[in-house]
Amino acid sequence: MIPLGIVYGVATFCGLKKLKKPIRKAAVSTTSQVFSAADLTKEAAYNFKEEVEDIIAEAQYENMKGNQDFFAEDLDLEDDFMEQEFNDQLE
Fold first, then answer.
1. Residues 23-42: tens digit of each pLDDT
2. What CA–CA distance (Å, rounded) separates 41 from 91?
3. Three-state secondary structure call for residue 1
4. Which backbone phi and psi does 39 adopt, to 5 degrees?
5. How far apart are CA 65 and CA 76, in angstroms?
6. φ/ψ of residue 33, rounded to 5
């Protein structure tokens, strides 16, 4: 019985040794594909983040531009009012 166990052990060792290279290649290939997928995911996330930042910057610009127009109109009305008061005082 003991010699039969030794034979099985040697046969298993030799079989695993022959399977080592294909298993290793499959593991390396799978890991490489996982890294590629992770890189694509990171790139997509960075692109999305950049798009959101662009949208926010454009919205802030439009808001600031709108506020400047509002204040410019307010100043124009104030100038008109001051001019009208000055003209009323001259009369």
1. 788 888 999 999 999 999 99
2. 75
3. coil
4. -65, -45
5. 16
6. -65, -35
Q: Give kind and range of the element (H or E) at residue 40.
A: helix 2-90
Tokens of 51: 């798009």
26 token code pair: 């499959």
Residue 9 token pair? 């052990």
Amino acid making up residue 36: S
The predicted-structure confidence for 33-83, as pLDDT tens digits, reads as follows 999 999 999 999 999 999 999 999 999 988 888 777 666 555 566 666 666
- Three-state secondary structure call for residue 51: helix
Quote the pTM value.
Answer: 0.50
